[in-house]
Amino acid sequence: MMNEDEKIVLNGEQEAALGVMMSGANVFLTGEAGTGKSTLVREFLRRCERECVVLAPTGIAALNAGGTTIHSQMMLKPGLLNPLALDPLTDGNRCRVLRMAKTIIVDEVSMVRSDLFCAMDARLREVASGVRKEMPFGGKQMILVGDFMQLPPVVSDNEERKFMDERLGGAFAFETDLWAAAMFRTVFLKTVHRQSGDALFRKVLNNLRHGNFDSAAKVLNNHCVGEKTFRSPPVCLCTTNREAKAINDAARMSMKGEARAFRAKVSGRFLEAEFPAEGNLELVVGARVMVLCNQRSEGVLECVNGDMGVVTGFGADGEAEVQVRLDNGKSVTIAPHAWEKTAYSQEVDPKTNAPVMRQTVIGSFEQIPLRLAYAITIHKSQGLSFDCVSLRLGRGCFDHGQLYTALSRCRTLEGLQIDRRLLPADLIIDESVVRFHSEMEELREEMPSGYCWYEEAMQYYLRRMKTGNGAAIPADVKQAEFDFSPRVYDDPALTELCRLHERGVINKYDAPVLAPLVRNVSAGVGVKESEFVTIKRLIAKYGDLPQPA
Ligand SMILES: Nc1ncnc2c1ncn2[C@@H]1O[C@H](COP(=O)(O)OP(=O)(O)O)[C@@H](O)[C@H]1O
Ligand SMILES: [Mg+2]
User: Fold this and answer.
1) Do the Cβ atoms of 530 and 485 come closer than 8 Å?
2) pLDDT digits over 46-98, tens only?
């Protein structure tokens, strides 16, 4: 997935988009499937000198974008999240990474549920200091990447649905107040690259996006339904986990190598539908598999969620271990992994009598984190490209964007086979996404060219914010907010600097140098690392002088 990029030259609109991303603005990078959004992110990472963190809602999407999952980086538990009541960050390393990052990139944002979206904001404010705590996402540059015409976030039950509708405005990230507050500058990509060699297929996919079912179905039903010979073995895309499992099981049964079964250890409230891996995992030497979580061996990352490979052996004496040769050439040993499920409950705080939310572990699931990889669900395929796809619609699509996501994975009409004729009911489009898109179109027309969005957004926040003691924010503090060079917030030298200022021992030449530094420290925006030379000089010069009479 990653080395495909070597031969890619960005086109004009991608270069222009890169310019906006480089500007430091909060960006929503969108466009049809295959317009090169994820490719552009990888190019941005190569060119951008700021520290960036790339996140995605699922393991596979994270691998495709070259990052890690939001849950893992932000230390969030699976299940419903209450952004107002997260456990504090405990992992110092992950905390430092977040604090250092200037830019946070989130791919496949259409699948980021509103509670997760707001939890990211809470985490980034948690690690921020000074005025940045009051800013959306702790004042970091956010680059959201994705297409809301593709799959929506997963909402597993009515309780979750209710929480999000009532508390967050809905399950989509764009339905939250936070989305509006972060003032994303929307950048559209228009040229489809994934199906670049197939104009007819591009037209079909575009028709589906716009709800023109009949013209799209005519072509697909003529070209893709029925037997086909493929250039390479196709990946089966299924609507349900159950069907993907049946295909994988059949592939496994046809293999003659050594076989082994692994039973999951389940405790507490863990419904079968929520199992993050097979309850009974049956593997055979030679089978193609996908890794389901990051695994470390003595602190070193061995493999990540979404890696593909082939089973080469099992642990001796029935030990629960599987040897896998990954497609990247590395051989790894996969040991059991434990997933925890948590839930929120409302309790009354005995001291204040006020209701408080608590999060507790209610179940756990331990299994070898592998699955067979002959077939995957459409949900897990989002973001990937395949030469040959066998689409199993079976009883039909049930989710917004599901049909479009599935079809747009394939590069050509020729490489696509569908198990039955398409029905109008297969095309499901969520009304709130249609509304969001038309609002975005309107906004886009209003935006004057050459408009400096970042500056405007910053001014907006700074006008609304006050420093800790309620005073207006001085101009040089505003300047500090535009500067991406590394800053220091806590250091004994800064305390010493403020003491010098209070003691009034500074001469009239050094006073104008000291004043803005002290102002930035007390406003909580810290000082630039490069200013430390000056600070050290001032302390050396005045530190030991007695207070003037
Ligand atoms: N400028 C480009 N020139 C040629 N191919 C490109 C270009 N940008 C992207 N691609 C290819 O198009 C396909 C889809 O790109 P991807 O970044 O996955 O799209 P998206 O994330 O928008 O769905 C990939 O195979 C990628 O290599
Ligand atoms: Mg993508």
Assistant:
1) yes
2) 888 778 888 999 877 776 777 778 998 898 988 889 888 888 888 777 888 88
DSSP string, 100-113: H-SEEEESSGGGSB
Q: Which of 148, 193, 410 to mutate to test the pocket of ligand 1 (most atoms within 8 A of CB)?
A: 193
Compute, in angstroms, the gap from residue 117 CA to the centroid of ligand 2: 18
Instruction: Compute the C-alpha angle 452/455/458, nearest 5°.
Output: 145
Report the distance separating Cα 248 and Cα 242, nearest Å. 10
Which pair of tokens denotes residue 495? 């305390």
Ligand 1 contacts (CB < 6 A) are 4, 8, 10-11, 14, 33-39, 193-194, 385
pTM of the model: 0.71
Q: What is the pLDDT of residues 195-205, one digit of tens each?
A: 999 999 999 99
Radius of gyration of the chain (CA): 27
Decide the pairing of beta strands 265-268 and 280-284.
unpaired
Pairing of strands 331-334, 322-326: antiparallel
Q: Using an 8 Å Cβ cutoff, are 30 and 147 in contact?
A: yes
Residues 6+ away with beta carbon under 8 Å from 472: 466
Type of residue at 121? D
Per-residue 3-state assignment (H helix, E strand, C coil) for 355-386: EEEEEEEEEEEEECCEEECCEEEHHHHCCCCE
The count of residues in the chain is 549
How many separate helices (H) and strands (E) can be counted in the chain? 19, 24
| CA distance linking residue 309 with residue 467, whole number of Å | 54
298: left (phi over 0), alpha (psi -120 to 50) or beta: left
Protein residue whose Cα sits closest to atom 17 of ligand 1: 36
